[in-house]
Amino acid sequence: MTGYETYGNGPEKVVVFHGWGLDHSAFAPMYPAFDTQVFTFAFMDYRGCGLSKGQKGSCSIAEISQDAIELVDHLNWKSFHVIGHSMGGMVAQFVSAAAPSRLKSAVAVTPVPACGAPQMDEARRQFLLKAGNSTQGLTMFFMGGTANRYNIAWARSVAEKSVASTDNEVFAKYTLAWADTNFVQKVQGVQVPLKVLVGEHDTITADMIKQTILKWFPNSELEVLSNCAHYPMFEVPLNLATVCQDFMARHK
147 Cβ partners below 8 Å, 6+ apart? Predict the structure, then answer.
């Protein structure tokens, strides 16, 4: 069983997927705004990350999805919602296709689309493959993810936490997982209600989502979050928690 942390005691069950280079603790700024009487959240750590550090595997999107299904079975959850950030938003799409009859709704936060990143240039690719080898590389990555809108102390602290809580070899594996995986055929026409959230300053733009995810999921909608880029759980945590819960409450 992959590592996880539960929060809340509500009847609505939610599995939460973190992004690349992070673990479940990235969502901690949102905890004060979670309605624990309505929702129970299971924050799952991927193999090699956080509470699952030291666990080996293929580090693929399909493996994360299977681990998530095993987790909800372990928790005896018959139906549930999912929230996923970035690479975790890609996982949310995969789970929607893998278990549509059990999924009440999905929220994809600044997500990588199911097509991966086929247009990524080689320089960016090599940077990401090597970023996990140093705190400096990860600091640059997190600075860029917030559109360089905050001071470097924040990015350095996240990078240091990432290095401490993640097995070194999985950085490159998970880079390839979100960049090179394409499961568009699996998600086309999936009826799960899906809300996609993008930051107004992010490189994953509303236009990109309109050309990809919104075309594949017929019951999807898009919202642009103000005053944030790729990391709304750090940048606008209370707003993000509210928007996610409002959507899930519509699909109890």
Answer: 201, 202, 229, 230
Q: Which has the closest alpha carbon to 83: 26, 10, 1, 37?
A: 26
Counted residue by residue, the chain has a size of 252
> At residue 232, what is the residue type?
P
The pLDDT tens digits along the chain (252 residues) read: 899 999 999 999 999 999 999 999 999 999 999 999 999 999 999 999 999 999 999 999 999 999 999 999 999 999 999 999 999 999 999 999 999 999 999 999 999 999 999 888 898 888 888 888 789 999 999 999 999 999 999 999 999 999 999 999 999 999 999 999 999 999 999 999 999 999 999 999 999 999 999 999 999 999 999 999 999 999 999 999 999 999 999 999
User: What angle separates helix 61-74 from helix 87-98, to the nearest 10 degrees?
Assistant: 60
Instruction: Identify any residues that bridge with 173 across adjacent strands, giving them in sequence order.
Output: none
Quick check: helix, strand or coil at residue 169? coil
- Do residues 111 and 83 lie in contact, with contact meaning Cβ atoms separated by under 8 Å? no
Q: Is pTM beyond 0.90 here?
A: yes
Going by C-alpha positions, the residue among 15, 72, 24 that lies closest to residue 46 is 24
Two structure tokens written together for 41: 């959240």
